[in-house]
Amino acid sequence: MRPLLALLVVTIILGGLQLYMMVRPHAAPLAEIPGLKAAGQISLEITLTFAAGADPFAVDADDSPSLLVVFEGNELLRITESIEPGETIRIDDVPNVTVGINEFYVRASPQHLDESARAIRVRVLRDNHPLTEESIWSQPGTLVEGTVVVSIESLPETPAEATGDTA
Fold this sequence. Notes:
Elements: H1 2-23, E1 42-48, E2 67-71, E3 74-79, E4 88-91, E5 100-108, E6 119-126, E7 129-137, E8 144-152, H2 159-163
Antiparallel strand pairs: 1-4, 1-6, 2-3, 2-5, 5-8, 6-7
């Protein structure tokens, strides 16, 4: 009787684990529903620690960006003029930001290719409150490029919105 009980307990435990492993990947939490627009105004602030200019090795030197920001395959910002060190560039009201994981690709071209490391500071803000701040570093003598990943949660309802009162 004991071996039969032990076999039953093991079967229940392993069967429950197998069921959990099959169901878990298909369950999407509410915060990651694709296409749910993020509430509030999402902005980006980009600060360079170096002077940026056109990439001297680009195919088209006239149209080579000194700073490029891409979100969902669309260019949010393309600057071809020189950018001074410490200058902060702000992109207000970023379109198509959704609740869940969002990725911003940022690339800057140093004006002078010397052997010093460089960085870009990227801040993602919602209604002027920081969601994340990241620094992207480069190897000496290379472009500074990287991806900033931010997870955006839905805003909680205020008591007036939950009850429908607009007083």
